[in-house]
Write a structure and sequence with these properties.
By secondary structure, the protein is α/β, with parallel strands linked by helices. It has 3 domains: 1-78 and 516-560, Urease, subunit C, domain 1 (Roll), CATH 2.30.40.10; 94-215, Diaminopimelate Epimerase, Chain A, domain 1 (Roll); 308-492, Metal-dependent hydrolases (TIM Barrel, Alpha-Beta Barrel), CATH 3.20.20.140. It is built from 21 helices and 25 strands. Helix 3 packs across helix 8 (223-240) and helix 12 (337-350) packs across helix 13 (361-377). The chain is globular, with a radius of gyration of 25 Å. The relative contact order is 0.13.
Length: 560
């Protein structure tokens, strides 16, 4: 009996199964649960990669046709393969600095915070600054800000400054306040606040721009320190399964440093970089113009990051009505509008994307108003990019009547699910029940047809993909808490959540034709997990581990 032709030819390098002749792939991933984020073909079993590009998506049997003598065949044995996960709002150097300095993330009480500061002070030299970041008071009892007196008890002589997790507030001890010349008579700068006690003395808490009074006295990190922070943050991101982060703000010096690190082969992560504006960094971007797809598509600089207000937890978010738990406060406007508005018009004409931090309902309305003014001032014919894809970073508290404006104006809500599951402990007291109707309104915005770019805002939050995915679909704290007024109907479906961390951030970065779904012709960026996050119980999502990260066809992380 004559053997089938496909078996006779099985020894040839170009044919390993029945089917048409194909060029071998560099890598073939078999026996996976593949979720493509492509509605036309939502699932598959196998993927083949040649160079940095996907050349096949389908069954494991058919994928074997792409196996040649030098092909690496990876049997995933049922693991879950996703389009490479992307974090649409991340502070890369801050993540690295958190890992390298006094990391106060997860501190459970003021007593624990003080004890950890004491450990660091005991290791410091005379007069040496002690800095840290990542604390947040919401899980503490009592739920209060730390004070200079708390820190003075363990550091009377060494200046101490500790940034709150959101980066919009920090606490200084008396030595740090003295170094900065902050006294009872010190006036806060524009966009900042100095909290005072009943006697009119500074408590040590500095809000938003007022932090600069002390931060300006902290010894500046060296260029090598910044480089180490960037590479440390990038390596951590790849281990967790991020294939791209969209870095929300920074200096032009940081842009040049990232280029140097890429050229030296020290960064494999994709970075979509924004610089702060208005100011010198934005001026440098205007002067140099956007730079798209450097280092084989891994580095792009085309965006300016603006900041309109502060954070809700530190009562810096700009509200239309006073804070429910502080009737004398409305929050803070951080950027003068006379500087912000001209930048928007200039950006439209130059083809530069703008993303702007807005948390409070007043700040979000102001963002929509100023964006709309700029769109009206610069007709499409006068724009370098017809579809600017400008972004509202955070979109946390929105007056419900403003929600339909996002779709109408084409403004992308760039939102961080973990903010909602952390803020649920204090947002009701800050806002009252009525304003929660427009808070973290993911599903309402999705149903309106908006592209929601999902992120973490690390190091404000932990910056872990599984926490963000869980928060998006469960809308509960990591311990399962959910208050009755927390609007569970605003949670995303798992399909929506997958898109929020794959194809939707790709769209927000003008890269939807290159990445974000698993399709032939797109970049081979994959995140491979040990469990199926699309099917397991919600609480189990938090236990899922990343086992492999692939960027541009290269395995950049593989679990032992």
């Amino acid at each position: 009996m004559r053997a089938p032709a496909c078996l006779v030819l099985a020894a040839l390098p170009f044919v390993l199964a029945c089917g048409p002749r194909v060029e071998p792939a560099d890598r073939v991933f078999l026996n996976a649960m593949v979720y493509t984020a492509n509605d036309a073909v939502p699932t598959a079993e196998a993927v083949a990669v040649r160079g940095n590009t996907i050349v096949f998506v389908g069954s494991s049997a058919d994928a074997r046709r792409y196996q040649g003598d030098s092909t690496e065949v990876i049997d995933l044995a049922g693991k879950t393969l996703l389009p490479g996960l992307a974090d649409a709002h991340y502070h890369l150097a801050g993540v690295g600095q958190r890992e390298l300095t006094l990391n106060l993330e997860g501190t459970k009480s003021i007593e624990e915070l003080v004890a950890r500061v004491k450990e660091r002070v005991d290791q410091a030299g005379p007069g040496e600054w002690v800095t840290g970041m990542g604390w947040i008071e919401t899980p503490w009892t009592p739920r209060r800000f730390p004070t200079r007196q708390d820190l003075d008890a363990v550091s009377p002589d060494n200046p101490v400054f500790l940034s709150r997790a959101d980066g919009h507030a920090g606490v200084a001890n008396s030595a740090a306040l003295r170094a900065a010349g902050v006294t009872a008579s010190t006036k806060p700068p524009f966009g900042g606040d100095i909290l005072k006690d009943a006697s009119g003395q500074p408590t040590g808490m500095l809000i938003d721009r007022a932090q600069g009074l002390v931060e300006s006295k902290v010894p500046s990190p060296t260029l090598d320190d910044y480089a180490k922070a960037i590479t440390t943050g990038a390596d951590r991101s790849l281990r967790l399964g991020w294939t791209q982060i969209q870095d929300a703000g920074g200096s032009w010096q940081e842009v040049q440093l990232m280029r140097k690190l890429y050229a030296e082969g020290k960064v494999k992560l994709r970075i979509y970089k924004a610089v702060h504006g208005p100011g010198s960094a934005a001026d440098s971007l205007f002067a140099n113009g956007p730079s798209i797809g450097e280092f084989d598509g891994r580095f792009t600089v085309r965006t300016i990051k603006g900041v309109l207000d502060g954070a809700l937890g530190s009562r810096g978010a700009l509200l239309l009505a006073p804070y429910s738990d502080a009737p004398d406060k409305f929050g803070l406007l951080l950027t003068p509008l006379e500087r912000y508005r001209p930048m928007l018009v200039q950006a439209l004409k130059a083809g530069i994307q703008v993303e702007t931090h807005a948390i409070g309902d007043s700040a979000n309305r102001l963002l929509l108003d100023t964006f709309e003014e700029a769109f009206n001032a610069v007709p499409v014919a006068e724009r370098k990019v017809a579809d600017p894809r400008w972004r509202d970073e955070h979109t946390q508290i929105v007056e419900p009547s403003d929600l339909p404006r996002f779709k109408r104006l084409g403004v992308i809500p760039s939102m961080q699910p973990s903010h909602a599951i952390g803020d649920l402990y204090f947002a009701p007291s800050r806002l009252g029940t009525e304003r929660l109707k427009g808070a973290y309104a993911w599903q309402t915005l999705a149903k309106d047809g908006n592209i929601i770019a999902g992120g973490s805002d690390a190091p404000v939050e932990r910056g872990e993909p599984m926490i963000e995915f869980y928060a998006a679909v469960a809308r509960r704290s990591i311990t399962g808490d959910q208050t009755p007024d927390w609007h569970p109907e605003e949670a995303l479906t798992r399909e929506q959540a997958l898109k929020a961390f794959t194809i939707w951030p790709a769209y927000a970065a003008f890269e939807e034709t290159k990445r974000g779904t698993i399709e032939v012709g797109k970049w081979a960026d994959f995140t491979i997990l040990d469990q199926d996050i699309m099917k397991i119980p919600e609480a189990e999502i938090l236990k899922v581990k990343n086992v492999m990260t692939v960027v541009g066809g290269e395995i950049v992380y593989r679990a032992q």
